[in-house]
Amino acid sequence: MTSVTSERSGWIRLLIVAVVALAVAHALDSVVWRSARLLTVNDKDWGRLLRSMGYLPTWGVIALGYWLQQRDVPRRAVNANAYAYALVLGPALGGGIAELLKLAIRRLRPNPDLFEYVFRPFADGPLSNRGMGMPSSHVLVAFTGAAVMAQLYPPARWLWYTLAVGCAVTRVLALGHFLSDTVAAAALGIIVGRWVWGRANRGIATPAVLLT
Questions:
Q1: CA dist., res. 129 & res. 135, Å (int)
Q2: For the chain, how many structural domains are there in total?
Q3: Domain residues for 162?
């Protein structure tokens, strides 16, 4: 099997898993909405830590730390810029995609008193995503960054994905999102992160080229 065929098969498997996971998440939305609540999660230290994985400046700090570590090592410096850019622009791209999809899907965040999916009409603020939750921006940012880090440091991939899952858990516990909002964001984040990693490995060293 050629590398191109293998890569294509990997993407197909990823898409199939994403579709199945999203279907299961929608089936579980009502159960999770009723049983998984901790409205004070963002007031707790561990909750703030996990949610910060979906905060874009967090990935800027991680990228800066990586770049400072790698820039003076001759055999690593060639890729240092490309990978540092990937660690910033990947999550930024993920967050941007999340905001655009919210405008297109228009599903509102959970109502704490009644389980229902409510969609805002396009005529009502077509360019405003206020109150919309599908997909979660925080989770998409977190999983995009985690996907890049998983490629950069494979032995520690479990750590980065665990932190990203933790970010998703905080958003569900706070009733900021349905479970399906976070699962959709996680799947898209992994896809975007892997795409950005592939671009970085083609010798891309400037942010302008990384996104073309």
A1: 11
A2: 1
A3: 3-210
CA distance 205 to 199: 10
Q: Would you tell me how many other CB atoms lie within 10 Å of the CB of residue 134?
A: 22
Cβ neighbourhood burial of 37 (10 Å; 0-12, 13-18, 19+): middle
| pTM confidence score | 0.88
Domain at 166, CATH number:
1.20.144
- Provide the H-helix boundaries in 36-73: 45-51, 56-70
pLDDT 10s per residue in the chain (212 long)? 566 677 778 788 888 999 999 999 999 999 999 999 999 999 999 999 999 999 999 999 999 998 888 877 655 555 778 888 899 999 999 999 999 999 999 999 999 999 999 999 888 888 888 889 999 999 999 999 999 999 999 999 999 999 999 999 999 999 999 999 999 999 999 999 999 998 888 754 444 444 44
